[in-house]
Amino acid sequence: MKKKYKSALALLTIVLVSVACSTKEQANTPQIDIKTLSGESSTLEDYEGKVVFLNIWATWCAPCIKEMPSIEKLTELYGDDVEFLIASNEEVDKIIQFKEKKSFKLNFVQLQNTPESLGVFALPATFVFNRAGELAFEEKGSRNWYSEESKSQIKKIITDE
Fold it and tell me: What pLDDT, in 10s, does the model give residues 16-35?
C-alpha cells in the first residue's frame, strides 16, 4: 500500500511540475493587441522573428515623457533590429495630438488591452520580447534607455538568437 502511495505521489509531482512549466511559458508571452494610429490592428505575434520593444505610457505621465528622448535615441541606434512600439490605451486623437505637439520620432500605437491586464499598475512600463516572442526583459518605471547599461541589455537581446 505504501508503495502505491509513493508511486501516485511521484506521478502527481511530475504532472504538477509539467503543468507549472507550461503555464510559466504561456504566461511569458501575453496576448497584446495594438492599433496603429491609422487604425490597422495587430498583435505581438505579427512581429514574430523580430525583437519588440513595447513601452506603455500615457500623455499625462511625466516620467513617461521624460524617458522618450532616450527611447528616440535608442530607436535611431537599433531601429533596423528592433520594432519599437510606444503604446498608450488613450484615445487615438489624444495620442496624435501629443505626437504633433512633442514631435518625437517614435512609432506611437494605441494599446487595445488595459495596462492592468498586462500586469501594469504604474507607468511607464516597458517589455522587450526576443525574436521568439518571449519576454526577455521588463522595466517598471522610467529609465534612461540610452545609458550604456540599457544599450547593452538591448544589444544582448538582439544578438542572443
Answer: 333 333 333 444 556 889 99
Buried b (16+ CB within 10 A) or exposed e, 86-117: bbbbbebeebeebbeeeebebbbbbbbbebee
Q: Give pairs for 33-38: CB < 8 Å, separation 24+.
A: 33/111, 33/112, 33/113, 34/85, 34/87, 34/109, 34/110, 34/111, 34/112, 35/92, 35/109, 35/110, 35/112, 36/109, 36/110, 37/92, 37/95, 37/96, 37/99, 37/108, 37/109, 37/110
Averaged over 30-54, what is the pLDDT?
91
Cβ 95 vs Cβ 107: under 8 Å: no
C-alpha dihedral (111, 113, 114, 118), degrees to nearest 10: -110
